[in-house]
Amino acid sequence: QLQLQESGPGLVKPSETLSLTCTVSGGSISSSSYYWGWIRQPPGKGLEWIGSIYYSGSTYYNPSLKSRVTISVDTSKNQFSLKLSSVTAADTAVYYCARQVAAAQFDWGQGTLVTVSS
Amino acid sequence: QSALTQPASVSGSPGQSITISCTGTSSDVGGYNYVSWYQQHPGKAPKLMIYDVSNRPSGVSNRFSGSKSGNTASLTISGLQAEDEADYYCSSYTSSSTLYVVFGGGTKLTVL
């Protein structure tokens, strides 16, 4: 059974870089069938796709966040990671990692709340 | 503002049917059969209920069904049950950028 687990700091200071890692178990991140993505949800608000990565390293980002986002993959650890730079309070959200089965089809991790505050 | 438009809320009584709409454009909902629907209970991760407009993943009740007409996709829940009360989100592939995914703003379903 596929499991995805997000990990990283729950509190980040404004202007710093948010860093999260997603560990995949029960499946290989090197599968040619899937992309691996990050999605976020501000408290009380809707979902926003951040970006996705293929095991080869090809990345696709939400244009509204592209200048601040880096997604990378470590196939040896079966992990992929998110970095979001120059964060503000508007970046406070639950961050989900997910397996992207198809264009709009995701299998989700449990999510992790990241708060941006000094 | 979300790329896909959903009603903020819908409600229904147990046993009734309800439909949630998701309106986009010809660049997303209308142009591709890549519309998914997610159910989210408070404090939980979203759960896939419908993919590729009308397909149900294994384990999802056949009370949930999806359809599309033009630029609007719809999720119908029949035989409404108390546990269906949740937020529902649609999503779609869009050709506005490379492999770009858009979500609706979400609909709160209340079972009266």
What order do the helices and strands come in, and which of them pair?
The complex is a heterodimer of chains A (about 120) and B (about 110).
Chain A: E1 3-7, E2 11-12, E3 18-25, E4 35-41, E5 48-53, E6 59-61, E7 69-74, E8 79-84, E9 93-102, E10 105-108, E11 112-116
Parallel strand pairs in A: 2-11
Antiparallel strand pairs in A: 1-3, 3-8, 4-5, 4-9, 5-6, 7-8, 9-10, 9-11
Chain B: E1 9-12, E2 18-23, E3 35-40, E4 47-50, E5 64-69, E6 72-77, E7 86-94, E8 100-103, E9 107-111
Parallel strand pairs in B: 1-9
Antiparallel strand pairs in B: 2-6, 3-4, 3-7, 5-6, 7-8, 7-9
Poorly predicted residue ranges of chain B: none
Strand element count of chain A: 11
User: Helix content range of the residues of chain A, please?
Assistant: under 10%
Element string of chain A (H = helix, E = strand): EEEEEEEEEEE
The N- and C-terminal alpha carbons of chain A lie at a distance of 39 Å
Main β-sheet description of chain A: 7 strands, mixed
Low-confidence stretches of chain A: none
Rg of Cα set of chain B: 13 Å
Helices and strands of chain B, in order, run as EEEEEEEEE
Number of separate strands of chain B? 9
Structural class of chain A: mainly beta
Q: Mean pLDDT of chain B, nearest integer? A: 94
Shape of chain B: globular
Which class do the helix and strand fractions of chain B yield? mainly beta
* Alpha plus pi helix count of chain B: 0
Structural commentary:
Chain A is mainly beta. Helices cover about 0% and strands about 55% of the residues of chain A. In chain A, strand 4 (about 35-40) and strand 5 (about 50-55) form a beta hairpin. Chain A is globular, with a radius of gyration of 13 Å. Chain A starts with a strand and ends with a strand. Chain B starts with 8 loop residues before the first strand and ends with a strand. Chains A and B meet through strand 5, strand 9 and strand 10 of A and strand 3, strand 7 and strand 8 of B.
